[in-house]
Amino acid sequence: MPVALPQFKPYRPQMPAINKKNTMSNTLNHEAAESLPAGDVVSAHRPSIEQLAGPTPFPGTVHQAPGGNFLVSKMDEVINWARSNSLWPLTFGTSCCAIEMMSAYSAKYDWSRFGFEVARATPRQADVIIIAGTIVNKMAPVLKRLYDQMADPKYVVAMGACATSGGPFFYNTYSVVKGADHVIPVDVYIAGCPPRPEALIHALMALQVKIKAGMTREQIRDEMKAPPQPE
Amino acid sequence: MTREELQQLIATQFAGCSFEEGTEWLTVDISADSWKTGAQWLRQHNDLLFDFLFCLTCVDWKTHLTMVYHLTSTTYRHTLVVKCKLNREKPEIETVSDIWRTAEFHEREVYELFGVIFLNHPDLRKLILPDEWEGYPLRKDYEDPINMIKL
Question: Considering only CA atoms, which of B103, B45, B105, B92 is closest in space to residue B69?
Answer without folding.
Answer: B103
